[in-house]
């Protein structure tokens, strides 16, 4: 089964993009393969650009407060795992306290001379060649400890944001429940009530993938063939978050 996620508003679009960027940085910062350096710096530069355009901290704080209300409600239910609920409540309270108190979190990336020097070249096809970016190739020759120290410094200001975003998305996904649906001749539409994104799970053996159009009140899913499969009814599972 393959799971697809689609945001229904701009806030969730930013959340999912940032989650993707954080994931790319986390995988590539180990610098274990030849493609990791380019992926790492592209991730850092994308992170700076996304957060310069849209500071998500206020929206994320509001969403964490909603999650906290839900967790407090769980605490009143019988046979609840009290230690888990207390741990979640503590995490949420910590992030709600930390996020508004962060300074301009993109400042370190913006003012770093090394990152500023390579930023423009990353928009040029093949711009990471040694003759274009000698400073990057010098950096790659540094010891693992020196490179790891730089990565830690570049990402230090983002740790509360990363943790808060991951926790919010984790709770949102875990609270949602999948239900079986069928898209007649590959088309399905429904009302979106108080949800920020939808999740679609279907078998890769069907040979179809979903495209979604919608907003905060309605959405439509059209399943398109990967190759030349004819239109057909598509069984899938749907969850709203």
From TrEMBL:
User: Which Pfam families does the annotation name?
Assistant: ZapD
Q: Which GO terms describe its biological process?
A: division septum assembly; FtsZ-dependent cytokinesis
Cross-referenced InterPro entries, in alphabetical order? ZapD, ZapD_C, ZapD_sf
> Which keywords belong to this entry?
Cell cycle, Cell division, Cytoplasm, Septation
* Principal subcellular localization: cytoplasm
Provide the protein's localization.
Answer: Cytoplasm
Keyword check for Cell wall biogenesis/degradation, yes or no. Answer: no
- Does Protein biosynthesis show up as a keyword for this record? no
Alphabetical GO CC annotations of the entry are: cell division site; cytoplasm
- Task performed by this protein: Cell division factor that enhances FtsZ-ring assembly. Directly interacts with FtsZ and promotes bundling of FtsZ protofilaments, with a reduction in FtsZ GTPase activity.
Family under the similarity heading: Belongs to the ZapD family.
Subunit info here reads:
Interacts with FtsZ.
Name it.
Cell division protein ZapD
């Amino acid at each position: 089964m393959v799971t697809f996620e689609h945001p229904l508003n701009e806030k969730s679009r930013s959340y999912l993009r940032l989650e993707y960027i954080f994931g790319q940085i986390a995988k590539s910062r180990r610098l274990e393969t030849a493609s990791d350096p380019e992926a790492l710096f592209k991730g850092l530069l994308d992170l700076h650009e996304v957060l310069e355009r849209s500071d998500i901290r206020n929206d994320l704080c509001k969403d964490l407060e909603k999650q906290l209300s839900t967790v407090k409600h769980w605490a009143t239910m019988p046979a609840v795992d009290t230690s888990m609920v207390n741990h979640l409540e503590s995490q949420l309270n910590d992030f709600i306290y930390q996020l508004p108190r962060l300074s301009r979190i993109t400042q370190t990336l913006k003012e770093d001379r090394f990152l500023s020097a390579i930023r423009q070249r990353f928009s040029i096809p093949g711009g990471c060649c040694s003759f274009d970016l000698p400073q990057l190739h010098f950096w790659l020759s540094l010891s693992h400890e020196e490179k790891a120290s730089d990565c830690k410094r570049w990402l230090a200001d983002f740790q509360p944001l990363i943790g808060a975003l991951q926790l919010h998305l984790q709770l949102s996904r875990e609270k949602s429940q999948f239900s079986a649906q069928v898209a007649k001749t590959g088309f399905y539409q429904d009302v979106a009530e108080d949800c920020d994104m939808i999740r679609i799970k279907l078998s890769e053996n069907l040979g179809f993938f979903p495209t979604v159009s919608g907003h905060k009140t309605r959405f439509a899913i059209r399943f398109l063939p990967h190759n030349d499969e004819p239109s057909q009814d598509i069984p899938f599972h749907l969850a709203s978050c």
